[in-house]
From TrEMBL:
Keyword hit for Protein biosynthesis: no
Keywords: Signal
Gene3D superfamilies reported for this sequence: 2.80.10.50
Name listed for the protein in its UniProt record: AbfB domain-containing protein
Leader peptide range in chain numbering: 1-18
Native source organism of the sequence: Amycolatopsis melonis
Domain Alpha-L-arabinofuranosidase B arabinose-binding: 360-450
Keyword Signal carried by entry: yes
């Protein structure tokens, strides 16, 4: 019971408001790409949020950062859901505050108008948990204190508490993990305060044992009444236990577990029952109250996450958001809470690529460039941060629900928008100005979703498309693949997209997908890929070098002309530093008994079951090929090239070839 209640109080308390003290150093809230700028609310969005609540913002308010603007509106708001949702957002991240200004305040106000409560109870319990902790610590529980975040509230305890053990415990909790901070607010303050009180009682050498027992009882009564946020004055703590129970019952919320338990204890004529309630019963009853609120909040949160997931799936262009919501729903209460607090705002970015139908080429992305909005691949050898220009933050349409707007992650409040240049409709990334016209021009609707083809993005009556000159524009129906953000367009990636993903669908696992990041060694790049049928196992490795093409080396025996693995032999012989990159794909030998690959360094690896996989290099290879290669009387190589006195040697099924370093002559020695 105690563990469950602690978790309940701690989890709900985690949603309280945060007003960072000057001495507090906030940890990074999220990880963004190299040049990505976290989104912020625009001036027009702040004005809309304020006007929704009937508030006229001052010039000073408009200059506040998003987090402070939220608390400024909270101070003036009257609606229960608006105030509660503001507190929950403010207790979270900067992203949560920004999204509250952009859309959260609107939906919360609608709930207030419809008298639909979703956040009010959770916010109330969060405030009350900190209010009770403040009273225990001897701190006045003013409204702005009890809506701070866990960490910032604890900081205030370190500065304002009078008890040495409370301050010491608060200092430890201030630098502790989030779960420990929650436990400190729920129980740690009270435990440390009880120790401070007992220390003071024990230190009084003049007090008799009876006096010490009386003071201990008064201390217990004082801690008990703080559960219902009553300051333990001398008049209250000196009351008999049954009168303290009446004080608690009167201060408890009507119908609460605390009220019921206090009344039940009062009905008993056994004094031990009264004392038991003061010592432990009031806390257990309060934990049951909080657990009930937590359960209701958890159910509401799950419903909200499922709604977000459904909209993301139906919308068609937010697969990352849909997958994150699915993971949260599968992960339980903590995962759902984490998704709503932060993750949902971190998975809004996507990229848009031409697809492989109707002659289009995958790997060409919708991107912002110095020449405007274009559809083209990135650099074959990308610099750090490559792909941000081809990344878009997919948000609710500025013109209304059901459609979307594409925001630049490098320039907050700049959106992909249509405009008329006097001749035809064009597209560009433009700053939002809050007008209805801009909202309409920056809104894109998904008309068609076809597995393996992607989605269409319609703006007005026309579709976002790639024009003949490579620029983005408006025209006839055009399909886009919705892909992961920060895409690269290296030769290996483009080869993969066009060769292995003709049935790409962002809502399913890919038939072939990267197993890890692309590796770079000077002018050589390579990457491992896996198949859906064997996840986590490399199916092949693709190589590319400057001026060359992409060629894969498969793992295992291969599908056509199965034979011992060539990649393993290649790596055993030191790979591209020794042999160079592949310059051909794996191909069947002339007799279809095995496979071979040629390399940039002038060598080849031949593989056949009866002889294994071996490299043939340089002059020895040239001599062998001049005889007919595997069709010659020598047959397949049976060893890699090795050093011999004065030269090099390769052995074959029916003989050998020696190379004389001094003369440069390769001589054939057939087997007798």
């Amino acid at each position: 019971m105690r563990a469950l209640a602690t978790l309940a109080i701690a989890t709900v308390a985690a949603t309280a408001l945060a007003i960072p003290p000057a001495a507090a150093v906030a940890a990074p809230l999220s990880v963004t790409a190299a040049a990505e700028v976290p989104p912020v609310a625009s001036e027009s969005e702040k004005l809309r949020a304020a006007r929704t609540l009937g508030i006229v913002p001052t010039d000073a308010m408009m200059l506040l950062r998003d987090k402070d603007f939220v608390i400024a509106l909270w101070r003036q708001a009257t609606g229960s859901e608006v105030r509660a949702s503001a507190e929950l957002a403010f207790a979270g991240t900067d992203l949560a505050c920004t999204e509250w200004i952009k859309s959260g305040v609107l939906s919360a106000n609608e709930r207030d108008q419809a008298q639909q409560m979703r956040d009010a109870e959770a916010a109330r319990v969060a405030r009350e948990a900190k209010e009770a902790a403040a009273i225990v610590a001897g701190i006045a529980p003013d409204p702005e204190l009890v809506v701070q975040s866990d960490r910032d509230f604890i900081y205030q305890v370190t500065q304002r508490a009078t008890g040495p053990r409370v301050r010491a415990a608060a200092l430890v909790a201030f630098g502790a993990a989030a779960a420990d901070q929650k436990e400190f607010i729920a129980n740690g303050v009270r435990t440390a305060h009880a120790q401070d009180q007992q220390d003071a009682i024990d230190a009084d050498a003049q007090a008799t044992e009876a006096e010490k027992a009386r003071k201990a009882a008064e201390a217990a009564r004082g801690r008990a009444v703080t559960v219902v946020r009553i300051v333990p004055t001398p008049e209250i703590v000196s009351l008999p236990d049954d009168d303290v129970l009446r004080v608690i019952a009167d201060g408890a919320r009507p119908g609460s577990e605390v009220e019921k338990a206090a009344v039940t204890a009062l009905r008993s004529r056994v004094r031990a029952d009264w004392k038991r309630f003061v010592d432990t019963g009031v806390y257990e009853a309060n934990w049951r109250d909080v657990a009930a609120v937590l359960a209701q909040k958890a159910a509401a949160d799950r419903a909200l996450v499922d709604e977000i997931r459904h909209k993301a799936v139906v919308g068609g262009i937010q697969p990352r958001l849909a997958r994150a919501a699915e993971r949260a729903l599968a992960g339980g209460v903590d995962a759902v809470r984490a998704f709503l607090d932060q993750e949902q705002y971190e998975v809004l970015t996507q990229s848009f690529s031409r697809n492989a139908i109707n002659g289009n080429i995958a790997g060409q992305y919708l991107r912002e460039s110095a020449d405007g909005v274009v559809v083209k691949p990135g650099a074959a050898e990308p610099a750090p941060g490559e792909g941000l220009d081809a990344t878009w933050r997919v948000v609710a349409g500025l013109a209304g629900d059901g459609c979307f707007s594409l925001e630049s992650p490098a320039k907050p409040n700049h959106y992909l928008a249509r405009y008329y240049d006097g001749k035809k409709t064009q597209v560009a990334v433009q700053p939002a100005n809050g007008t209805v016209d801009f909202g309409w021009n920056a809104t894109w609707c998904v008309d068609n979703i076809l597995p393996g083809a992607g989605v269409t993005l319609r703006g007005g009556a026309d579709f976002l498309t790639r024009q003949a000159d490579g620029r983005a524009g408006m025209g006839v129906e055009f399909y886009w693949w919705v892909t992961e953000p920060l895409p690269d367009s290296t030769e290996i990636t483009v080869n993969w997209l066009n060769k292995y993903l003709p049935d790409y669908d962002p809502y399913t696992d890919l038939l072939v997908s990267p197993l890890g990041p692309e590796q770079v060694d000077g002018a050589v790049r390579y990457r491992d890929f896996q198949r859906r049928s064997a996840p986590g196992q490399a199916a092949f490795r693709s190589y590319w070098s400057r001026g060359g093409a992409v060629h894969p080396l498969t793992t295992g025996r291969g599908a056509a002309c199965a034979s011992p693995e060539i990649l393993a032999t290649y790596l055993r012989l030191s790979g591209h530093p020794a042999l160079g990159v592949p310059v051909t794909d794996e191909a069947c030998t002339s007799d279809k008994a095995g496979r071979f690959v040629n390399f940039a360094g002038g060598g080849s690896i031949y593989s056949v079951d009866r002889a294994g996989a071996h490299a043939v290099l340089g002059a020895i290879r040239a001599k062998w090929l001049s005889l007919g290669g595997e069709k010659s009387t020598l047959g397949y190589p049976t060893s890699d090239e090795v050093a011999i006195p004065g030269g090099r040697r390769s052995t074959f099924e029916r003989g050998r070839i020696d190379y004389d370093t001094a003369t440069g002559v390769a001589t054939v020695y057939p087997a007798s």
